[in-house]
């Protein structure tokens, strides 16, 4: 048995346990006490820790100096994330800010928010057998956390990134600190009754207001997500970086909706005896897909439903996407941990402007992989624009600038058994344009000296392939700027939403186009226009001549 201290109580390492507390004599409180008394405390004390538990030194609902002291100074913190309690999440964030070791635990089935899935999280079954398993897992992870600790958590990563890029124009770290400080000050003023609220509300009502604010921030964290993405500082002089903010919420929503469906379809193929390759295109539209695929795969691993994942491989030329997947998709918190899904980065010539690789080597490798592998190939593609094919069968056709980009997409289409074309709604064109008409409307041609005004090229799709190409986009509720546009797309694609339920099992030619209703659009007209059409110089032309949403 290894011990982390000499056993002398004066020299014991300190371990602080944070957890949802629940009311006195409630089921939650009894479950917490059982977990602490039967598993956490004896295991950690056996390892040489002096264990302190949050609710035994503090009143429920408040954040005391004692708790903050433990979070800032103790050698180890164990966080129970099982119910995603706001106080626990706050305390975890404080601990992350120190860069000191944290071990998190959660009951099986807990859906953790964004970057936390990449930390040391032990999932356990809440029964007697699960308690024994948790003891063993806890020892292993604690030894690893203390002996081989390298700071790595969402806040530390952002801090490191901001140090490296402290001279960039975004000043993201200042933005984050300013917003977090303002939130903290607001909550403190409410909790202490130092605002006008104390004139009309009692303590219980004030706490209710504070908890409501915490819950709202927990659910509506897009401002923080955007800042974190900017803090990554990926490819500052690339089109990728420039376009990362365009349609960000909509792209993230598409990934959140589609990725679970995609992996369940892969699982169905594997269970029928097939191997699966997911070929993911470059571009910012597909960037959040790498994170969502990582999260979904990690959930399968956490619930020990992961045998089939060994037969799935992600193949991509998307450089920032693969970096994102490497950051968020490790099966363990160790920097040596394997990825949750087998992955292959295509070889080729790096194109800094697009943050991707392309060229003959890229295309040949993908073609040879298909020739040499008995597997199902699923293509995930995007484009600068997506045109709906008006001849039957109807399908989306991606357009791309640069012949290398268009050629890679063409090779991807030709070597995939089924293809999903992903796009925000505002980039889907339903007009029956003649060849070259889009470029004429936008003023693009090969003779233009401006590289941003070179023409787009379509991927060629014949009648046979069109049956296996499906659109993944959003639609709007009635009364919105793009309501009519989304209705037209739904009508021409003759979409049957009932088939979504059978999506994992349908043959490729019967898979429906996937149109997800997206309502996170500003109500104010000017903001709605800017959100749906973020590129200023193209806004009027696109609205009037391509989508015909204004006259």
What is the helix fraction of residues, given as a range?
Answer: 40-55%
- Mean pLDDT equals 80
Please state the second-level CATH architecture of the largest domain.
3-Layer(aba) Sandwich
Spatial gap, N to C terminus: 78 Å
Shape: globular
pLDDT < 50 stretches: 5-9, 161-170, 233-237
Strand fraction equals: 15-25%
Instruction: Kindly provide the name of the CATH class of the largest domain.
Output: Alpha Beta
Oligomer: single chain
Number of strands: 18
User: Strand order of the main beta sheet, please?
Assistant: 8-7-6-11-14-17-18
What structural class do you assign from the helix and strand content? alpha/beta
What is the tally of helical segments? 19
CATH topology heading of the largest domain: Rossmann fold
Work out the radius of gyration.
26 Å
Tally of discrete structural domains: 3
* Major beta-sheet overview: 7 strands, parallel
Protein name: DNA-binding transcriptional regulator of sugar metabolism, DeoR/GlpR family
Keywords: DNA-binding
GO molecular function: DNA binding
In short:
This is DNA-binding transcriptional regulator of sugar metabolism, DeoR/GlpR family. 43% of the residues lie in helices and 15% in strands.
Describe the protein's architecture and organization.
- There is one protein chain.
- The protein has helices spanning 27-46, 65-73, 86-98, 128-147, 154-164, 172-191, 203-219, 222-232, 239-243, 248-271, 287-302, 319-328, 360-372, 403-414, 437-442, 463-466, 483-493, 525-532, 539-546, and strands at residues 13-18, 49-53, 76-80, 102-107, 121-124, 276-280, 312-316, 342-345, 349-351, 356-358, 376-381, 385-388, 396-401, 418-422, 428-429, 456-458, 469-475, 514-517.
- The protein has 551 residues and is α/β, with parallel strands linked by helices.
- It folds into 3 domains: 13-152, 3-Layer(aba) Sandwich (Rossmann fold); 162-233; 242-493, Rossmann fold.
- It has a 7-stranded parallel beta sheet with strand order 8-7-6-11-14-17-18, sandwiched between helices. Strands 2-1-3-4-5 form a 5-stranded parallel beta sheet, sandwiched between helices. It has a 4-stranded mixed beta sheet with strand order 15-12-13-16.
- Helix 11 links the parallel strand 6 and strand 7 (312-316).
- Helix 2 packs across helix 3 and helix 11 runs parallel beside helix 12.
- Keywords: DNA-binding.
- This is DNA-binding transcriptional regulator of sugar metabolism, DeoR/GlpR family.
- One of its GO terms (molecular function) is DNA binding.
């Amino acid at each position: 048995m290894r011990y982390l201290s000499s056993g002398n109580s004066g020299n014991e390492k300190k371990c602080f346990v944070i957890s949802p507390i629940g009311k006195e004599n409630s089921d939650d409180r009894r479950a917490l006490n059982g977990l602490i008394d039967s598993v956490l405390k004896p295991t950690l004390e056996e390892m040489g820790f002096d264990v302190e538990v949050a609710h035994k030194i503090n009143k429920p609902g408040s954040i005391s100096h004692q708790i903050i002291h433990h979070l800032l100074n103790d050698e180890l913190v164990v966080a129970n994330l099982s119910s995603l309690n706001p106080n626990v999440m706050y305390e975890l964030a404080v601990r992350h800010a120190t860069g000191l070791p944290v071990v998190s635990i959660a009951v099986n089935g807990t859906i953790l928010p964004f970057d936390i899935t990449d930390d040391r999280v032990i999932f356990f079954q809440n029964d007697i057998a699960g308690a024994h398993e948790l003891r063993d897992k806890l020892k292993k992870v604690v030894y690893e956390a203390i002996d081989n600790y390298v700071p790595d958590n969402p806040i530390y990563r952002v801090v490191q990134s901001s140090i490296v890029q402290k001279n960039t124009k975004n000043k993201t770290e200042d933005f984050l600190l300013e917003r977090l400080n303002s939130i903290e000050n607001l909550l403190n003023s409410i909790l202490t009754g130092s605002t006008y609220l104390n004139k009309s509300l009692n303590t219980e009502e004030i706490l209710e207001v504070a908890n409501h604010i915490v819950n709202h921030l927990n659910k509506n964290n897009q401002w923080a997500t955007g800042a974190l993405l900017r803090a990554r500082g990926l490819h500052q002089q690339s089109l990728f970086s420039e376009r990362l903010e365009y349609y960000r919420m909509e792209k993230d929503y598409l990934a959140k909706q589609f990725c679970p469906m995609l992996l369940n379809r892969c699982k169905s193929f594997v269970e029928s005896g097939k191997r699966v390759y997911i070929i993911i295109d470059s571009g910012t539209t597909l960037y959040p897909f790498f994170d969502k695929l990582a999260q979904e795969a990690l959930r399968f691993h956490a619930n020990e439903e992961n045998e089939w994942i060994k037969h799935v491989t992600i193949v991509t030329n998307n450089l920032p996407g693969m970096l994102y997947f490497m950051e968020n998709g490790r099966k363990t918190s160790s920097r040596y941990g394997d990825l949750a899904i087998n992955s292959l980065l295509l070889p080729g010539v790096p194109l800094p402007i697009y943050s991707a690789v392309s060229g003959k080597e890229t295309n040949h490798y993908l073609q040879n992989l298909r020739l040499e592998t008995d597997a199902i190939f699923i293509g995930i593609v995007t484009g600068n624009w997506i045109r709906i094919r008006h001849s039957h069968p109807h399908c989306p056709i991606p357009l791309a600038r640069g012949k290398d980009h268009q050629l890679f997409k063409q090779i991807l289409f030709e070597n995939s058994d089924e293809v999903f074309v992903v796009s925000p709604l505002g980039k889907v064109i339903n007009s029956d344009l003649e060849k070259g008409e889009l470029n004429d409307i936008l003023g693009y041609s090969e003779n233009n000296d401006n590289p941003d005004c070179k023409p787009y090229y379509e991927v060629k799709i014949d009648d046979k392939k069109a049956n296996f190409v499906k659109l993944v986009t959003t639609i709007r509720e009635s009364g919105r700027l793009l309501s009519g546009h989304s209705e037209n797309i739904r009508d021409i694609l003759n979409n049957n939403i009932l088939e979504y339920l059978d999506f994992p099992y349908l043959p490729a030619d019967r898979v429906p186009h996937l149109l997800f209703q997206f309502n996170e659009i500003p109500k104010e007209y000017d903001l709605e226009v800017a959100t749906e059409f973020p590129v200023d110089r193209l806004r009027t032309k696109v609205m009037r001549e391509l989508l015909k949403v204004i006259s």
